[in-house]
């Protein structure tokens, strides 16, 4: 018999308040999240921050961005998603990413992706300006407008990546993406098509550089069609950990949540967390 703790708004406070109550049997407790990617991301970070015991996370999708649920086989129907939870017999560990930002002395975890540069800037534009186009039912026009605006305004930047025991230097990078191997296709941007499997214990690092307008539009088109392409300007690496340095102010986003423009000095490492659902239900 398991009991569920509901995680919704004011998540950090909610988790801290719950964990202070010692009358709960934590070994028979799961954290039930009702929301989208952002709520799940915040719940994960609050539990990792405040709990020594890893309480399994369960999810009933109810957000604007439910790509995690879609890609992990969780139904978007609340009744079906709840059935997937109550019929589960044990938690399953899935890969997550961890990061430590030494410049700003912050640390945290991500379910799917940590993006810097072009993709993060594009997502920021979509969040701010697509409301106008959506009201006119011109979503594709809005997508193309923001795509061109991103390309025109996003300047290249230098990247230093220490990975697999060696340094990689990029003088004209436009995008840096670090993601777990679980599917993390984001319907808001269509720019990222991840690889690999949900439990392979590796992080995928993608750096896009020297991108002219034709390569950029081709990549965006292929990504919107959910097709993976390999171009010479796209450098991919796989590792359990890496050190990333960017000495210019760039847009960033973590699991689709915007970060302020900043410099980056990041140490990434693969981690895992237990989830409570069955994609077979």
Description of the molecule:
This protein has 281 residues and is α+β, with helices and mostly antiparallel strands. The chain has two domains: 3-95, Probable inorganic polyphosphate/atp-NAD kinase, domain 1 (Rossmann fold, 3-Layer(aba) Sandwich), CATH 3.40.50.10330; 99-275, Tumour Suppressor Smad4 (Sandwich), CATH 2.60.200. Helices cover 29% and strands 37% of the residues. Helix 1 links the parallel strand 1 (3-7) and strand 2 (29-35). The longest helix has 18 residues, at 118-135. It is globular, with a radius of gyration of 19 Å.
Layout: helices, strands, pairs:
Elements: E1 3-7, H1 11-19, E2 29-35, H2 37-50, E3 57-61, H3 67-71, H4 78-86, E4 92-101, E5 106-110, E6 113-117, H5 118-135, H6 139-153, E7 157-163, E8 166-180, E9 203-209, H7 213-224, E10 234-239, E11 241-254, E12 257-275
Parallel strand pairs: 1-2, 2-3
Antiparallel strand pairs: 4-5, 4-12, 6-8, 6-11, 7-8, 7-11, 8-9, 9-10, 11-12
What structural class should be given to the helix and strand makeup? alpha+beta
Low-confidence stretches: 183-196
**N- and C-termini, Cα separation:** 19 Å
Overall shape: globular
Structure summary:
This protein has 281 residues and is of the alpha+beta class. 29% of the residues lie in helices and 37% in strands.
